[in-house]
Every structure is written in C-alpha cells, then in structure tokens.
Amino acid sequence: MKKNVFSLAALLLASISMHAQEVKFEEYDLDNGMHVILHQDNSAPVVTTSVMYHVGAKDEHPERTGMAHFFEHLLFEGTQNIPRGEWFTIVSSNGGSNNANTTDDRTYYYEVFPSNNLELGLWMESERLLHPIINQIGVDTQNEVVKEEKRLRVDNQPYGKFIENVKLHMFKKHPYKGTTIGKMEHLDAASLEEFQAFNKKFYVPNNAVLVVAGDIDVAETKKMIEDYFGPIPRGEDIVRNFPKEDPITETIKAKAYDSNIQIPAIMTAYRTPAMTERDAYVLDMISSYLSDGKSSVLYKKLVDDKKMALQVGAFNLSQEDYGTYILFGLPLGDTTLETLLAEIDEEVVKIQNELITEKDHQKLLNKFENNFVNANSSVSGIANSLARYYMLYGDVNLINTEIEIYKSITREEIQAAAKKYLKPNQRLILEYLPQKDDE
C-alpha cells in the first residue's frame, strides 16, 4: 500500500511540474516585418530583451567567411547615441548583463536587466538595429579581437579543428562546409563597404525576431516596442537558395593533423536531416543512449569496462538545412584507432539489429524530460527558446510541445533511424592525428 501511495504522489508531482512548465506567450508582427514575442512572468523583477537575426555563417560569401561572427562583435562597438566602447558600461552600471553568440544559422543578442530597466534594453537593441556606426576604427579593433579568439579557441586548442575538418569533408556544395569563425585572411581582405553592405542586407527588422520575457506589463511593453522599433524601415527581402548536397554513397576516408595534441582520435560522421525533421529528434535520442553520462553504452564499455578509451562520445549536430551525426573516441594505451572504431561500430550495429530495452528507453525519456524542464527554468532560457523555435523551426509553441515529440519516439523508430542514417557507406572516417615533426 505504501508503494502505491508513493507512486500516486510521484504522478501528481509530475503532473503539477509539467503544468507549471507551460510557457505562455503572445506573438505578432510590426508593420516593418519584425516579429515580436512577449512572455510575461512577474515572479521575479527581471526582464530579458533579445533579438535573434536570421543570419549565420552559411549566409556569407565564400570568399568572405567569418562575417556573421564578426558582426556579433562589431555591433557592440557603438551607435550614433551610444559612444564607442560604452555599451558594456551602460549595461553593467544599470544592473544588467549581456552577451551574444553566432551559429551557422543565426545570430543572437540579449540583455538581462532589473525589470525597471526594460525600456533601456529595448532602446539599446533598437539602437543596434537603427543607428550602428560601422567605421574603420571599429572594424580594425574587432579584427584583432576575433583573431585572438580564433587563436585561443581554435588554433591553440587541442582538438580545436576537428569540427572544421569534419565539415570540410561532409559538405562539398552547401556553405556548411565552412566554419562559423571563418578565415582571418577573408576578414583582412574585406573592405569597409563590404561590412556596411552585410549590415544593410541582414540587420533589418524583417530578418529578426524580438523577444521580451519576464516581469513586464504587456500593454506598456507593446507601446515601447512600437516607439523604438516601429519607425525602423523594412529591408529588402532575403532570398536563400543554397545548393543541395549529393548523397554520400561510399565511405570517405581522411586524415587531419593537429600540433596541439599528443593522443590521436578517430571520428566518424554521417550526414543527417534538418533539425525540424522527426528523425533529427530520434538521432538525438540515439546519441544520448550511446554517450550521455557515465552509464551510457559507449562510456561504460570502452572507458570503464574495457579501458580502451580515454574519451568516447556521440552527438547529433542538428542545423537548419542539414545535420551531422558524429561519433568519436580517443584510444587508451596500445588500443589502435581501427580497434576503437570497430568497438564503436559494434554498438551501432546492435541498435540497428536489436530494440533497445524498455528500461533504457524509459531512461532516455526521463533524461529528455529533465533537459526540457531545465532549458526553460530561467527567463533568459525561455527568451532564447522562444526566438529559436520561431526562427529555425517556424513553431514558437514547440517551447511547450517539443517534449511530446521525444516522448512519442518508439524503440522501433530508434532502430529504424540507426539503420537508415548510420550506414558505413554513408560516412566519413577521419583520423585526427598529432602533427608530425616534419609537417
């Protein structure tokens, strides 16, 4: 009887938790095409103002890579009404914090303020859009900042170029073959006019979504948004027509060298569907099954039990147009890359030939439900999710319903996706090796 009481209590708590997690929002368009999403949460005196622009590394000219990421830095330089170098000072002196980030698909800027500074956050983001100052001083300053970031995070980082080498082989036509940080020689060669043209094309209201989340009065917020963003002129419509990749039908074998490592790595990569496809969600679950945590299949087998690997993992890099599913391992002791790959492949074949257990399936569902709750546990996390679901998925309400997609995925679907996408003849095998002395 006691067990049944506890089970009932757990069910009731889970039900209450899920109900409390529902994120309510309102969305609408300004006349200039800017999409607006509002989420009211008056439980704490905090507000997030954020703008996501539909521009990333894939939108760049192939001889001017790195532009989108460069603008992530450049648009903090200053505006007609914010003196150069004062952006961060204004934010911090008003009790706020801010940041930005760029991917191949979008660029995201946000501020978190005490809610009595909502208007300040809206004004600053409207300034970034309406009155940016893009001059040679700012370009030269941020050029050095980006170069230092590349040296720190890529050039001098162990295994820092493995994604770059994977993408280079996985994509021959689509701009995903490049890197988000781009090539420094491209940025060095770009003229001031090219930077200004990039801003004029992509940093327009009809290529953006504004999210305001937190302790707000909706009517007052709408008025402020109209005052600050309404007068900004609409830009030209952006047309995207990226080339399609040919299917991979034969194993691609390649090597890459890294002077920052002493231990080699083996990597395999498979081209997979866009992030909006159901199979992308299924592949997320497969990667979690294989390598999420110390109890996962690959970690337990190769790191704990057989002690053949220092590290092993799988992840599904889902993007707007394609995805890339990557498996990797770092060998331990005398284990060869070939042996480690065979051991990893063995576990993939098991998923293809056998249904995972009901216990493992339930464990996956629990993990994804926990991740879902955590992603929306803060106002800033909610703002990010609202912007991303609108811009990259075309469905803002996924912030409430995406977990139902994961919960509906069956063991049979997991097996079918592994069979369909994780085929040996549809992959890259990359040996990532220490740089030789003579190279």
UniProtKB/TrEMBL annotation:
Taken from the record, one Pfam family name reads Peptidase_M16
Extract the InterPro entries matched here.
Metalloenz_LuxS/M16, Pept_M16_N, Peptidase_M16, Peptidase_M16_C
Q: Which residues form the signal peptide?
A: 1-20
Example of a GO MF term: metallopeptidase activity
What domain of life?
Bacteria
The biological process GO terms on file are: proteolysis
This protein's record includes keyword Phosphoprotein: no
For this UniProt record, give its keywords in alphabetical order, as a comma-separated list: Hydrolase, Metalloprotease, Protease, Signal, Zinc
Q: Which residues form the Peptidase M16 C-terminal domain?
A: 191-366
Enumerate the spans annotated as Peptidase M16 N-terminal domain.
36-181
- What SUPFAM superfamilies does this protein map onto? LuxS/MPP-like metallohydrolase
Please state which protein family the record places this protein in.
Answer: Belongs to the peptidase M16 family.
The name this protein carries in UniProt is: Predicted Zn-dependent peptidase
What lineage is on file? Bacteria, Pseudomonadati, Bacteroidota, Flavobacteriia, Flavobacteriales
